[in-house]
Amino acid sequence: MNKFMTKCYLKLQELKGKGASFGRRLTEEERGGAEIIAAIILLAVVVLLGVLFREKIQDLLNSIWGGVDEQVDKLGGNFTIAPSST
Question: Would you give the DSSP letter of residue 77?
Answer without folding.
Answer: S
